[in-house]
User: Fold Gfo/Idh/MocA family oxidoreductase from Alteromonas sediminis.
Amino acid sequence: MSEKRKVKMGMIGGGQGAFIGQVHRIAAAMDSEIELVCGAFSSDPEKSILSGKALYLDPSRCYPDFNQMLQGEAALPASERMEFVAIVTPNHLHYEAAKCCLEAGFHVLCDKPATFSLKEAIALKNVVHESGKLFGLTHTYLGYPMVKRAKELVAQGELGTIRKIMVEYQQGWLSQKEDEDSKQAAWRLDPAKAGISCCMGDIGVHAANLAEYVSGEKITALCADLGTVVDGRRLDDDGAVFLRFSNKIRGTLLASQIAIGEENNLTLRLYGDKASLHWQQEEPNTLIIKRHNASSTIERSGIGEGSSFVTDAMRVPAGHPEGYIEAFANLYRDFAHNVKISRNGTLTASKFVPGIEDALRGMAFIEHVVAADRSDTKWHDLVTTHSPFKDIT
Amino acid sequence: MSEKRKVKMGMIGGGQGAFIGQVHRIAAAMDSEIELVCGAFSSDPEKSILSGKALYLDPSRCYPDFNQMLQGEAALPASERMEFVAIVTPNHLHYEAAKCCLEAGFHVLCDKPATFSLKEAIALKNVVHESGKLFGLTHTYLGYPMVKRAKELVAQGELGTIRKIMVEYQQGWLSQKEDEDSKQAAWRLDPAKAGISCCMGDIGVHAANLAEYVSGEKITALCADLGTVVDGRRLDDDGAVFLRFSNKIRGTLLASQIAIGEENNLTLRLYGDKASLHWQQEEPNTLIIKRHNASSTIERSGIGEGSSFVTDAMRVPAGHPEGYIEAFANLYRDFAHNVKISRNGTLTASKFVPGIEDALRGMAFIEHVVAADRSDTKWHDLVTTHSPFKDIT
Amino acid sequence: MSEKRKVKMGMIGGGQGAFIGQVHRIAAAMDSEIELVCGAFSSDPEKSILSGKALYLDPSRCYPDFNQMLQGEAALPASERMEFVAIVTPNHLHYEAAKCCLEAGFHVLCDKPATFSLKEAIALKNVVHESGKLFGLTHTYLGYPMVKRAKELVAQGELGTIRKIMVEYQQGWLSQKEDEDSKQAAWRLDPAKAGISCCMGDIGVHAANLAEYVSGEKITALCADLGTVVDGRRLDDDGAVFLRFSNKIRGTLLASQIAIGEENNLTLRLYGDKASLHWQQEEPNTLIIKRHNASSTIERSGIGEGSSFVTDAMRVPAGHPEGYIEAFANLYRDFAHNVKISRNGTLTASKFVPGIEDALRGMAFIEHVVAADRSDTKWHDLVTTHSPFKDIT
Amino acid sequence: MSEKRKVKMGMIGGGQGAFIGQVHRIAAAMDSEIELVCGAFSSDPEKSILSGKALYLDPSRCYPDFNQMLQGEAALPASERMEFVAIVTPNHLHYEAAKCCLEAGFHVLCDKPATFSLKEAIALKNVVHESGKLFGLTHTYLGYPMVKRAKELVAQGELGTIRKIMVEYQQGWLSQKEDEDSKQAAWRLDPAKAGISCCMGDIGVHAANLAEYVSGEKITALCADLGTVVDGRRLDDDGAVFLRFSNKIRGTLLASQIAIGEENNLTLRLYGDKASLHWQQEEPNTLIIKRHNASSTIERSGIGEGSSFVTDAMRVPAGHPEGYIEAFANLYRDFAHNVKISRNGTLTASKFVPGIEDALRGMAFIEHVVAADRSDTKWHDLVTTHSPFKDIT
Assistant:
């Protein structure tokens, strides 16, 4: 099929001190299928170069900014040149960076949420389509084997007709005023960098994405109650949402960053007319299926069930816990697989990686939740064609 | 203090085949402080008498109906006469039975919800006050030691200022059409017997009561999304509610009877600015306290912590699980204690048992949730002074 | 079948301050099938009488000692007379009390271990057989619904051929020197009252009994390592045992009273060639079945599976936790059932209650474990015909 | 300190189809501190070379056997040459490979158990000491953050004086006859390749190592009961051991490969006189501390507690599960750190990695357990100076 060499990756953002950039690098390195070859790791040119050197990169490929990176890499022979770019900056920089990379002919794997606004996401979709390049979005939680297994069970009809979808994402890391000083917190709470929402934009969107992915249904309307619990914040740090999915399925989404003592409690429950399904991110290798007047089933990753769609996402046998980084690495491995395929010109995403449609739906979710919260009317339709806010479209 | 003899109890409802009546009797018998002496167990006189005999009652005190019971018992010497009546009929009969008992001079311990409507609850409150008799309401879950411990921890300020209250009650026993035929299901789904709501009236009201009890806060406003998931039903079998408590505390209440595979999953989570508290009815002897950037604590019933308010609610040492029936028995034991105290004329409820205020708030919750669900407006104030429905006030 | 009246019970031991006597009374009262009518609650005559009065007994049936109780009750009309005696004294008094009751024509339900020594147990077996009366032994844990379900699953061949039996019983209540002062601890650590062993005699014997009951296999040989961890004690407070069961099945039994922080952690695991079974007393309503390269099953009490042998042991629906007291009450209810049956002269134990065979095996287990611990040889056969100790036979 | 380049690694064993070799490679790659540069992946020269190419290695460094690798690498400039060798063959080849590598001047990181026999381990110790090179042993479970935290808590005296150590390792992957055909099973059940033991040699040794590491105590004597449960096997597949540790601490070690339905259930419990500690490999990010008559504590990786000894072993914040591969990668990262330090001639193992002493103790444990099982005497001292078997020393 494709040439026998690792996939070459560049990175924008993720300089020293950043959290998520390092996670992306670990995930990319894990399976030895991807090689980080260059980067523009910071908006501060000096810090950008230093960060690259600390990662053992060739100094000539530690660029001061991403425009120089795009030029420098384009000038290299195809076999040495980076093939895709991982974008791990704060939200407000995603669109510009992704646009430039795609237009320069590089595939893009972008951190979520995809853009600063729905308007940008709509624009990005056009850029992606015109570029003919791959665009991936790191909705990490879709990389877990048991999330894939959950999707498979639903698709196979194990739950029967879905009646009710409950998803929640509880964190406590922003429960204190003093938590706001960290690098990760500062930009997430700043409307100029994070966009219109903190809690819903950062984690609510993960929950919505997970619920849609596993159920195969789309959110069509919502009613929201967001809150800013810690004084002085300008964005939401807590919220609850009633959902309607396609096929009139009823649902709820609860998310918080001030749920003190919670770590990263993302939990999905789907109730059908034949069975229900329960998954928790903090114990990711377990899936519980409950039935009516019958015993429940515990499925564990690596044990018996599941097609290759599921088992390909595991590296070690059952009982050897795989976690968040492995889930993340699955997205990278699958994206790299697609990049390899595309080397000969084909653009078939043969492995599933969340992409521009998830980007669009995510941004639409965020803006409609915030708009619904501000309204006295109960229900609001969710559309991806335009923003509910006149002033920000 | 009071005379040395067991407290004598009569019962209305709970004839052969009824579920909850038998639970009341087991709870009453458990601590050998209460003696069932008479009953009118069914609206069918013959069945009523047979039921009493099967319970080893004196045949002369197996009454064909509750009016004859009130007359018959009144005619007995005080030392033999029943002292209180347990009412365990379907909802629509509670008010009439409770009113007659109270007016005949007997204390009443009534199953929940207290009445058929908020209007009846308001009327009942007057009856209780005029009678000078004790009125208790079996909100069973308040009888658990660790629920009491949770209340104590909140009151002691262990959680700091409460910011967020999450309660949910998931059941699956009505998830199938064919589940409707059982005796328990039939009346709960019949508006003429259950009242305006099935899911919220049967279990939502427990969740609301538990949240208010432990937090010490009152629900002041709500927004509701109820559903009738199984075709052909006339009442809700699933629902979600946004809550506002006193002090602007934000909350959510989720309840369902169609959550397939769920048994009796009542879960309470309280988040303060210092710590959070987690309790699940299905594992009732455990309470988890989570903190910010610090280890969590597992409190177990019978281990160290807790004042006598908590430890009095236990019968065996830690590690010997006590359950639902013991929690129920705690209400009975405490009510019997109060009855004993009142023998000499005092009416001091020295032990806490949920009562007429819980009755009123419960009925107000049910009616406002249903009204809010029917409205296009998001938020609705909760008041106990009148029904939100003109036609049913 | 039998006359329509409650079964009448007397009690020996269990005076004020005793723990287990009160548990027996609660268990007996719970289902309103048994009536406590008399007792000799203490070796101190005055305390005995006071204890009875505090239990609302007829003063004429609060006896100063058990001999007077046997005489007094025998003099009453058959319909008023006690029908069985619950023996809840320390171990060293069991034999004498049981013997007298049986010989006086009363059935006996005795706390475990049955006697002070294997020699006494052998003698008691003869007394039981000659008396023609019922003898029950309160191996409480056999009363749990899911223990019965476990036995049923094994008997049905769900696990295939049993290969390995692991049972453990961890407690921490004697982990401190100062724990020795309580009434419960004092006699258990006193060789004159408890017998030859503390940990193995008090809880190891429960573990052995549970393993034999569920598996249907008998312990045939053992190798033991007992310890006295807290200085100054004269009996074991910790121990480990290798087991051989019938059919050469390999097993282990671990027990401790100094396992600090443990409550009452009795855990059973059975491994067959088709599946394994896992049960924990602290979460008694759950049974887990694990299989080879296949998903596991969670069985919950009240959900679907199980014959009436199992479901008769429950009082409330799934999700309403039943616990230790309910398990205890199941033994009482079943024993009372057998007592009723016997009223007309039949002595068919139609419901299973642990009895004199369990008594014998329990005492044999205790003595052989202690003997094996004292030996330098690894393996020792377990027999019920005579003690391994010459000096104490 | 040391030159700024990745640490270069070669590998012996781990060709296509091998399980553990791939895990080693993933662990080595994860943190981008180590670069796999060469290998002799199979005893079949052709397969060895093909395996290397599939890993994107320079064809000139895909060697047909490890002797050629040692020669080939020695001939390269120091800055390109491999710096250490990972040995991932079956047990019987470890010693020869390790000896050759060390004598050729390369550091060695070896899979466990270290050698085929205690005699070889003693010899290897001499080779290591004479070589002046680093020798690491991949006792993976020591790489978990919460295992390090456990060790830290014990060392800080949180448990008080240790009284009792319970470790168990239950697997079910060899429970069926037909499980014996896999590549992993075949050599483990073959005495010519695995050595004197299957279950104890493969996993019992992990359990013993973990218990010694966390407690800081050494096993001094033991009594064993091993079994060969599945017919026709020549080595043990199940076993139980009584342990004595230094300071007369009592302990038990239970291990099985026929515990059907078990995945990789390695569990450690330490009981002191102040508190106890509980850790399970299948839920590795949680550590529970239980106390006497006081609430328990849940420590979670990434939450508050723990020195850098613990926190350095984590990559992502609390609630983002890290697992087996991350634990493995911690050993690799720490070993690579030590390799870097040694570049300038120093041989200070500044980061802890299990080494030759663990190798020796592990082999001594295996041989003494097998010898003890074959003896009729109960207790046997454990020494590392010579084998208990005359014929195999």
